[in-house]
What does this fold into?
Amino acid sequence: MRRTWAVAKNTIRQALRMKVAIIFVVLLLVLLPIMGLTATGDGTLKGRLQTFVSYGLSLTSLLLCLLTIIVSIYTVTSDIEQRQIYTVVTKPIRRYELILGKLLGVIVLDVGLLVVFAGIVYSVTVFMPEFFDASDAELHQVKNEFYTARASLVPPELDVSQEVQEVYDELEKDGQLEAAYPNMTREEILDTLTARKRLEKQAVAAGGRLLWEFENVRPLDPNQSLFIRFKYDVSVTPPDGDVYGIWQIGDLRQFQYGGEIVTPIWPEERRDPIRTFREIEVPARVIAADGYLGVEFINNPYNQTVVIFPVEDGLEVLYKAGTFTGNFIKAALLILCRLVFLSCLGVLAASFLSFPVAILFCLVIFTIGTVSGFVLESFDMLSHSIGLVYTYTIGAVIRLLPRFDQYNPTAYLVPARLLTWSLLGRVLVFMVCIKALVLLALALLIFSFRELAKIIV
It folds into this structure.
């Protein structure tokens, strides 16, 4: 371990002498505070904070990822190309200790830089309201909608399988199936009918009512607020582009069974633009003692149109379940998992490739990881045509690729969504403990058999 740590310290010193590392560090030191002062967003304090956190943390992650790739590759390839490796391997140090030392040095450097720059982003975010003339309403808004970590509850998926099957059987009986859905398989037709039927369940005519019911709503503090986040769509766009709605939020079971109203009901009449996310702030005391919460929307007859709540993101309940600081720390740990993976990838590439080729190889993998959703969707289409061949060849390789876009920390911090320890644990297990360790094992295996010099007699 002592020899490994000695290699790690030498790797850190070597990295700090690199001009590219100095440039990246200076860029972050200069750009992060400037971004904090110049971020505007939508002009509100919340918009400024969201814009800064999004761009600031993304820039930090990007530059540290690129720096990790460059340092992890250069620290191995430069020793080989400059023949310094000969003086190292002749000493009492094994090849695996050399690789582990290089990797440890890169990771320690990453941890140090991440602590510094994540600390800058956090500090600017926390103190930003003091630099702007924010009203009390804006300060209240960012406290409840940004400086927090909110859990999300969405309506349970509606089971419309029986209704869909009845529609399918009716179309098949009347011989209209092929005409209505040409060139589609049975599964594709059923999926289309299911999506349509679920959307119908989320639509309400003028004067009609729509009720959502949630169970096990447990806010962190019952004296805090909860938020109903929603988005309208309509069958016919109103002249002013707004929808007039009447909301009732609370234990609506009291109306069904009568008797004394124990839990308060929160009524609210609103006018909101269509196709735009809006939030209703409601005191958490409207939640019943058993965790039940009912949300009812009444389509004001004045609208004269059908109001539709999109199935995917039409409505959700948000309530405080953590703190901004805790969420930010977990977001930084997500970035660290990404850096550990890339450092193992860089060491693997450097174990058998030259510096330019290794850089290109790692940048391709990094780019694929940032758009992994698109890549997986594209290859899933291919799997339908080649079946098992895809599963055991291309599919196996695809599953080893990182999925950086799926675990983007800004996707949780910007909308103040709770980043759970369970999600962080899954990333740690799959990205670090499995994928990164596989890359490290390959690097140790390849480097242990690599020919560093030829003996010519």
User: Anything to note?
Assistant: The longest helix spans residues 45-81. The domain at 204-321 is CATH 2.60.120 (Jelly Rolls).
